[in-house]
Design brief:
Two copies of one chain form a homodimer. Chain A is of the alpha+beta class. Helix content of chain A is 21%, strand content 29%.
């Protein structure tokens, strides 16, 4: 290993903490893949073990959230060179029962929501989630009362319009991690379930104008480098499209069982049996829910 | 941080190298999330820097593959306690041009394959990939000539039958990481593109019998804890279903744009316009391809 000379980086993955190098060893090519190890179950000794990071740097706080970097190496101090850090810590204190539930592992279940189950149980759950001011944060954005400074691009037409904002997880700079949210201006579509064959022209225009708008705002990004998808179930019931760089691994939110590509939603509607009112209300939808979720506990 | 007392582990993710603890601090609950840092771009100094891991353990080789564990801490030696390792290394030497291509980052593209593009270009690509003995490894398994000892469960009916084997990535023990492959016995279906409305009864029986078979082989696993999906495009053109534990993060192979849930494939066929011969040959399919792939370079 120590005789390797490094030529160049072939690949890296900041999500899985791996990096791959092209190297030379004994006059022939070699590939070195380095990967940080996962924590072992007895990491409860993380901060008390002789291995305890000698250097801990507190680098920010916001309300109950506190962030730290730490380094095991006595010779390297994170506040001199943060790149020398081995570990990140996030501390949430004080933590409520809601926080504990949110951060606990939960088991997952594969369910099939038939049109009958949707009509009988899910529809009123969705209406509840749309009522009592719960979507006010969305309407404030659509009405231009909030987050105006964050808008990336938009179309203000009442029927065809939409607004694109950066997702809070994106640093708004790294193009390969572009992660945006598109809210439609019309207020009559709660989710995939409300999409019908008659919406196909509207969806096609949405798809092409969002892509064009984002790429105009970020030259260097091409339209076929974006993944446009919806969630079912979504986390709030006002139709929104996620537009994310294909280079970006956004985790479970992009999995089959949660995400549906907008292009495939459109083509499924186009080839569906029935008239203009036929749509996703007629289809069995298979997806994944967590056992801690309201959907599982109240309905499935 | 040092005043925290640890109560229990709430969650951990060996893929992203994070662990979440419930703790107590100043008599109230706190949540600590620890995460290994990603490699910084100048990690080409990985093995020559003063930070160079003093302890490197070679723990296996197979042909051109060599594996190592390493620890930065002078006090902890991986060959005494492998759990003390900070880094894993995989060395491939000598590496060929094919290896270098495989391990290099590639850009991704979102494409739409229309029925016309499928008929005109993709069909003959698929036929090429099914010919010249390329599927012999599959037929050897179906004929019982290979991997008999690895079969988890099967149905030997010529038309309705299938065989389930563990995926090579699975240790065949950890239920939460269950990762299996189901090959259908019939040889006339190359991929999703060949599925028609008339196949719905066959697909429904496939879905229920695979789930039942796997859960009978692994008591403790329930049928709704499995994700059953197909890939488009698949890595070989003989229809196969992936059956994976919902607890298992299998990465990009489970993303929308690659994976389609079997339940949704069935329901899309059921609600599709047309007669029994209508099917996925009639649909625009949106998915992701890598710029290094044959599909991109030869067709898209």
């Amino acid at each position: 290993l120590r005789d390797l000379t490094f030529d160049r980086i072939l690949n890296q993955d900041t999500r899985t903490k791996t990096i791959t190098y092209l190297c030379t060893l004994s006059s022939s090519a070699a590939i070195l893949i380095a990967e940080k190890t996962a924590f072992s179950p007895d990491s409860s000794t993380l901060l008390t073990h002789p291995l305890t990071p000698p250097n801990i740097l507190h680098h920010g706080s916001n309300d109950i959230y506190h962030w730290f970097l730490a380094s095991h190496s006595a010779g390297l101090c994170p506040d001199k060179d943060p790149r020398g850090a081995d570990l990140r810590f996030t501390l949430i204190h004080p933590a409520t029962e809601t926080h504990i539930r949110k951060y606990s592992a939960q088991k997952w279940r594969a369910v099939v929501e038939t049109p009958e189950v949707y009509d009988k149980y899910v529809k009123k759950y969705v209406e509840e989630k749309r009522g009592s001011g719960r979507l006010n944060w969305v309407y404030n954005i659509l009405d231009g009362k909030a987050e105006r400074d964050r808008v990336i691009c938009e179309d203000k037409d009442e029927e065809w319009g939409w607004v694109v904002l950066p997702d809070s997880k994106w640093d708004r700079t790294t193009l390969s991690a572009l992660y945006t949210l598109c809210l439609v201006l019309r207020r009559d579509i709660s989710s995939l379930r409300d999409l019908r064959k008659k919406h196909v022209p509207w969806l096609r225009r949405l798809q092409s104008s969002i892509s064009a708008g984002i790429c105009a705002a970020y030259p260097g990004l091409e339209e076929d480098q974006l993944r446009l998808y919806v969630h079912y179930h979504p986390s709030y019931y006002h139709l929104h499209i996620h537009a994310v760089s294909l280079e970006h691994d956004a985790g479970a939110g992009q999995y089959a069982g949660k995400a549906l590509l907008l292009g495939n939603v459109i083509s499924q509607l186009e080839t569906m049996a029935g008239d203009d009112e036929a749509g996703f209300q007629n289809v069995d939808l298979a997806f994944t829910v967590g056992e801690e979720s309201e959907l599982w506990q109240r309905i499935f």
